[in-house]
Amino acid sequence: MPASESFRIPKRRSHVPTARQRVRKTLADWGITDELADAVTLLANELVTNAVTHCRVSHSQIKVELTLNERELTLEVSDPDRDRLPQPHDSTPEEEGGRGLALVAALADDWGCRQEPYAKCVWARFDLEGVRAHVPATL
Questions:
Q1: Contact between residue 120 and residue 51 where contact means Cβ atoms under 8 Å apart
Q2: What is the dihedral of CA 62, 68, 69, 72, to 10 degrees?
Q3: Full residue range of the structural domain in which residue 87 is found
Q4: How high is the pLDDT of residue 129?
Q5: 8 Å CB contact between 69 and 4
Q6: In sequence order, what are the residues at sequence separation of 6 or more whose Cβ sits closer than 8 angstroms to the Cβ of residue 123?
């Protein structure tokens, strides 16, 4: 049975570090460390930052969910602005932002987004072949 951890944070930039720390702790609890933990934590930071920055629904929350099974780890970040799906674009060297989805595409084995009834979700999947992760028996 897959292990899963989810939490919500307020849609405020000051809460992005909290999301990053919770993701890092969950990964450590599952025995995921080193480069994979760094990549997942970095992408969680990017996706949560994007949600906080671009969601136009006032006073909303951002949901972060990690799911671990024997073959893959999935990171999902959802916000209630369901009609604004992320669009990757080529950033110029002068632009300060706009590279987050390119980073997601480069570090994840697969990624995408979907519309749900009341939210949109951006997800990234990581192949666990060769990675020793511990799926907790209690979950």
A1: no
A2: 90
A3: 3-127
A4: 84
A5: no
A6: 74, 75, 76, 77, 111, 112, 113, 114
With 0-12 CB in 10 A as exposed, 13-18 as middle and 19+ as buried, what is 57? middle
The tens digit of pLDDT for each residue in 39-48 reads: 999 999 999 9
Q: How far apart are CA 30 and CA 132, in angstroms?
A: 9
Q: Which amino acid is at 133?
A: A
Q: What does pTM read for this prediction?
A: 0.89
The answer to whether position 24 is within a domain reads yes
- The pLDDT tens digits of the residues spanning 87-135 come to 766 665 666 666 688 899 999 999 999 999 999 999 999 999 866 666 5
Task: Look up residue 49 and give its amino acid.
Answer: T
Question: What is the total count of domains within the chain?
Answer: 1
Number of CB atoms found within 10 A of residue 27's CB: 23
Give the whole-angstrom CA distance, residue 50 versus residue 120. 12
Tell me the pLDDT of the chain averaged across its residues.
89
The CATH number linked to 28 is 3.30.565.10
How far are the Cα atoms of 52, 123, 124 from residue 97, in angstroms, in the given order?
Answer: 14, 20, 20
